Amino acid sequence: MRIRILHIAVILFLPFLAKAQDIDQKEKIKINGIIYDAKTSERIPFVHIIDVTLNTGTSADDNGNFSLTTNRGDSIKFTAVGYSDFYILLNDSIRNNSYQVIRLEPKAYLLESMDFYANDPMKGFYLKDIPRDTIKIYGNKGAPGASYWNVLPNGGSGYVEAFANLFSKRAKQEKKLAQILEEERMLKMQEEAEIVQRKTSEEKYNADLVNRITDLDGEDLENFILEFKPSRGFILRATEYEIALQIVESYREYAYYNGLEVDMDEILRRAKFSD
Q1: Which three-class secondary structure state does DSSP give residue 153?
Q2: H or E segment and range at residue 30
Q3: What's residue 2's pLDDT?
Q4: What is the CATH number of domain 28-104?
Q5: Cβ–Cβ under 8 Å, residues 197 and 236
Q6: In the prediction, which pLDDT does 115 show?
Q7: How confident is the model at residue 144, as a pLDDT?
Q8: Among residues 66, 63, 67, 59, which one has the least CA distance to residue 45?
Q9: Which helix (H) or strand (E) holds 246?
Q10: pLDDT value at position 111?
């Protein structure tokens, strides 16, 4: 009876023993290498390296370097969050102790719209109202003062520089400087326009012109101009004829209220309205 049980046990475990022996007899192979981002050529740290055949694995170091010893013929998967998986088959074309350069293609993630708000202690920006299980925000790439944030689906790696570039303190300062320069430019243009308008107005309407038409001088001339000088807008728009006519009509009113006798024909001649 005991012999029979032992015989059955041997039969049951024989396949497992054969498989273990087969594994032991497989050729061992060691590969070393480095893992890069295929787009930026930057090293990718802590990539998971899985022997799919044996369901075992290891990880790259913080500089993307790795070393793996396994069986010839196994399938190896390189995986990192934010990147597409990469496979290699350890066939006869791969030599033992060979150096492999692995390049992982970044994945593109479509993120929903999100709000940003400033936070002075961190000198940066945070994402607000984002579900914890979809997005995590890490301060920077391993060093204080780094110029970008890591936006990581499910806590993995992958860098989004546009956020800091768009909302950084430097960008805000540059925008403010541009606004100040534009305001100064507009102010300078207004000042230059004011100078031109004042000069044009003085050329078209002045004491010499009023004196020539009315024959007023001294204090009377000053009082007449103070009371009857038209607006700058009128002077700038009006022709020489219209300005002279305004002076004549104003002088007619001035003479009437001051009880002065005037020769209107002479006034019109001075204004060059008649010979």
Answers
A1: strand
A2: strand 28-37
A3: 57
A4: 2.60.40.1120
A5: yes
A6: 52
A7: 43
A8: 63
A9: helix 240-257
A10: 55
Which regions of the chain carry the CATH code 2.60.40.1120?
Answer: 28-104
Residue with tokens 């001088």: 217
Whole-angstrom Cα distance, residue 133 to residue 140? 20
Angle between helices 207-214 and 218-228 (to 10 degrees): 110
172: tokens are: 């805000």
Q: pLDDT at position 24, please? A: 55
Residues of the chain with pLDDT under 70: 1-25, 109-169, 274-275
pLDDT at 76: 95
The confidence score (pLDDT) of residue 33 equals: 93
Residues, the chain: 275
Rounded to whole angstroms, the Cα distance separating 88 from 64 reads 17
Q: Distances in Å between the alpha carbon of 107 and those of 39, 104, 151, 161, 167?
A: 11, 9, 12, 15, 24
- The DSSP secondary structure of 163-192, one letter per residue, reads HHHHHSHHHHHHHHHHHHHHHHHHHHHHHH
Whole-angstrom distance, CA of residue 125 vs CA of residue 117 = 6
Q: How many beta carbons lie within 10 A of that of residue 223, not counting itself?
A: 13
pLDDT at 156: 39
